[in-house]
Write a structure and sequence with these properties.
single chain, alpha+beta, 5-stranded antiparallel β-sheet, 5-stranded mixed β-sheet, 12 strands
Length: 454
Amino acid sequence: MWLSRLFWKFFLTQAALLVVLALVVVGLDNDRLVLLACGVYLIVGLAATYWITRSAVLPIRQLTRELQRLELGESPDPVYVASFDEVGQLADRFNRMSQRIGARLSELDDSRGRMATVLGNMIEGVIAVDERQRVLFANDAAGRLLGFEPAQAVGRGLMESVRNHVLHEAVNTAFAAGGSKSVVPRTLVLESPTHSQTLSINTTRLPGKPCPGVVLVLHDVTELRRLENLRQDFVANVSHELKTPLSSIKAYAETLQNGALADSEHNHLFVARIEEQADRLHQLIIDMLSLARIESGQQTFEIVRIDLGPIVTEVCEQALPAAEEQQLRLHVEASAEPCQVRADEEGLREIVANLVSNAVKYTPAGGQVWVRYRTEGQQAVIEVQDTGIGIPAEGQARVFERFYRVDRARSRELGGTGLGLSIVKHLCLAFGGSVAVKSKLGEGSTFTVRLPAG
């Protein structure tokens, strides 16, 4: 239809011009006038041809231009054609198609923006690579975990951005695996001068044949591994701590049963040892239950304003006989002004008692122990200083762990459970405070407790 209309336009125009030219030529006798008429006919014919061609080609050019813009990802403008022929129908369908494509592109942009926001704010690292292992996407978390700049890594090889063979092997394994299921996670350990970091790497193939790429998800499991190690150590330590007094009780009981019960010289000694080990076992269980309740938040504390002076005085009076027995001098340096603290009274007493008891136990004869308390701004400070055996530098970070002992043999000999300082730490945290230690091996230690002032 469009071609037929174009043909008829051109045919009728040329026919009209020929008729006019014939009429003019018939009425003219001069050759010059005939040539002039032919020249006019040529000019008018060319103008008419240009107008007809332009009216036919212009919509095609507009459609071509807008299609090129659409190909480049730009939003095309509507193409308006006055006629209702094939070109007009094509322009109408193009306009409707461009509207739908524009709506789809807008939806894709919104979806891409939401996806980028989600992936960018994930705590897990996410990296996507193509079949040539070039980075397609990497979020900020992946950059922090592996130490590279995500924006600069896009388009570059993965090994060029992250020089780690475990990561490279995980990608190769994912490409070699069949199907689209996740590959067995790998563990990546990153060592640095300050700390060690453990990452779990999960790889998933992108759908398609051949596989167009792989997605890696990095989980920081450092804290989880640390807690697992603590749990394993705790189970091992509990088993050992319970086994030791139980073995002693069983050995003494068997000795008495095998004839020592009639030995008046030793039977009372064996019974006393059984009682001593039973008391140690009882104290260990009490400390474990207390620590478990504090850690789980099940123990209820009555946080009130307490005068620190009477608590410290009472605890030190109770520890004075043990200090005198070991020939130690126990000093109490009270604050010049009243010192009040917000805490649970029994919990506060247990904090001070554990610190003073440890200082007395681990200070050799002739040594000294100082207990000081004062107010510093919004905090009440309690210091327990001794001239005891001290704590090595590598042990100061672990001294508040459960069952950690600087001198295991001496601790067991003195009846310690290895839980006292751990209980102190968790009580301080429960009261909104903290505890720290400064020590030098062979010269003594200073434990400092800071709690909210009353």
